[in-house]
Amino acid sequence: MNLYEESSTTSQSLLRIALTASLAFAVVGCTKPPVSPEVEPKAEAPSAPAEMAAADKGFVCDDDIDTTKLSAEDQALEDELWRQTLEYLKGFTTALETSRLCLDSPRAVIQTNDGQSNGVESRCVSRYRDVELMVKHVNWVLDHPDEARTCFDSQKNYEAFPLYSPNERMKKASKVASWIDRPTLNDYYADKSGLIAETGRKLGKHFAAILDNTDSKGFVDVDMTYKGLPDLWAAVGWIPFYAEAEKAINARFRGGYAYAEVMGPWGLLRIKEIDGELIGAEIGMTIQLESFYPYHFHHSQELYMNIGKSSCAKQNTYMVMHWDNPSFVQKRTEIGWDVTIDKRKHRKATWFRPTSPTDANEWIAYYERNAIHATEVGGKCGKGDAPPGFAQVWARTSSRDNNQTTKVCVPIDAKGNPKPVESVTAKDPVVCHLEDWKP
Ligand code: ZN
After folding, report:
1. Residue 104 pairs with which residues in a beta bridge?
2. DSSP 3-state assignment of 331?
3. Among 2.60.120.10, 1.10.8.60, 3.30.499.10, 3.40.30.10, what is the CATH number of 14-28+58-64+71-435?
4. What is the DSSP string of 191-244?
5. What dihedral angle (degrees, nearest 10) is formed by the CA atoms of 146, 86, 262, 166?
6. pTM of the model as a whole
7. In what order do the strands lie in the sheet with 271-274?
8. d(CA 261, CA 405)
9. Domain extent listing, the chain
10. How far apart are the CA of 56 and the centre of ligand 1, in A?
11. By the 8 A CB rule, do 143 and 162 touch?
């Protein structure tokens, strides 16, 4: 089962194309030989950087990198996009290596409610092996920019699926985005109507204002935001991911959400392997207008850095709880687990936590495999005049193995049967059909 089974039949359906591509990838991914642990270089050893610098790192790019020769003028624009890409990656990996609350890494929220003490659960995030590998791989890129550059592609002529710029104003303000000349979200919604399209246009309109209301300096000494890297945020390929995905239910969310990928199988920097190691890092950004992103889950682990500033504590909140959390009801099925979520039975428990780019406890969260998560972006509040909308730095750590499909939990009635609804909130009971992860 996948998220897009019931999406519209438009022949140009972006999501169907994306799905086809990701399924094709999954098949290829499953046939790859596993990386042998004994051939892993000891990148953590103190002497490793000198050895690595001397050696050819053996970068293997994805096979769809555009190698068209550019004019000197265009090359300069692509160079700038590359520079800002590296800066974004530097901020990302530096943030994960900076000591905050743990001695050697940030401490990330891994459950907003542990289901037992009803408290939040956190962990020193670099101790997760997938995070450790992602940091190592991004550092390999930063240490070998010339080799990594061979896998970089502005995606100006990208054919796998359409990519968008947020709006005309942001595009015009960036020479790089003007050169790449992607259609805008307004173009995407031009022939569409209804609440999804209306919200989609609103997202395009408020995009820059939402991005202006962000901060990364609270947790890392690199400005990863739109202010610091304006060409990257305007020129990276944005995808209105849920616009045609009916299973995401909420129209305001489906129109009001987009994400973009800087590094990863579908992003600007597409590295398949380095030194025989599969590169699972998938790093980008998300944006969401005032709306509820329903409970959902996926195999790949995920990491968020909350760069969006809030006007009050409850404006932008999120929840993440492990699928086997005692607050849920789990039932074994032939292919995995059915996990029933009914927040009404836990009235006094806080599931949703605030986000803040400057609070050491609230700026980073890590989602384990099949963790159930949701994001609630609220309306205007407090004294701030920030527009209701929320941007995050987003990453998956294992984007090149197993099933990458994001699945949304299904609303149910009192008897536990699927219930057709037009909108869903955090309090509505749902069932999440988990599938086993097969190594
Ligand atoms: Zn997710």
Report:
1. none
2. strand
3. 2.60.120.10
4. T--SHHHHHHHHHHHHHHHHHHTB-STTTSSS--STTT-HHHHHHS-EE-TTTT
5. -130
6. 0.88
7. 59-61, 271-274, 277-278
8. 16
9. 14-28+58-64+71-435
10. 35
11. no
Centroid of ligand 1 to alpha carbon of 15 (angstroms): 17
**CA 373–ligand 1 middle distance (angstroms):** 7
Q: How far is the CA of 335 from the centre of ligand 1 (A)?
A: 21
Contacts of 79 (CB under 8 A, 6+ apart): none
Q: How many angstroms is it from 206 CA to the middle of ligand 1?
A: 23
CA 406 to ligand 1 centroid distance, Å? 7
- What's the gap in Å between 340 CA and the centre of ligand 1? 18
Find the 304 Cα to ligand 1 centroid distance in Å: 9
Angle 72-97/129-143 helices, nearest 10 degrees? 140
C-alpha 370 – ligand 1 centre gap (Å): 9
Please tell me what DSSP assigns to residue 376.
E
At position 209, the amino acid (one-letter code) is: A
Q: Count CB-CB contacts under 10 A for residue 299.
A: 20
Residue 32's identity, in one-letter code, is: K
Cα of 37 to ligand 1 centre, how many Å? 28
CA–centroid distance, 369 to ligand 1, in Å, is: 10
Per-residue pLDDT of the chain (439 residues; tens, 9 = 90+): 333 333 333 333 444 444 333 433 333 333 333 333 333 343 444 444 444 444 567 999 999 999 999 999 999 999 999 999 999 999 999 999 987 799 889 999 999 999 999 999 999 999 999 999 999 999 999 999 999 999 999 999 999 999 999 999 999 999 999 999 999 999 999 999 999 999 999 999 999 999 999 999 999 999 999 999 999 999 999 999 999 999 999 999 999 999 999 999 999 999 999 999 999 999 999 999 999 999 999 999 999 999 999 988 889 999 999 999 999 999 999 999 999 999 999 999 999 999 999 999 999 999 999 999 999 999 988 876 667 899 999 999 999 988 899 999 999 999 999 999 999 999 999 999 999 998 7
Locate 119 and state its tokens.
């408290």
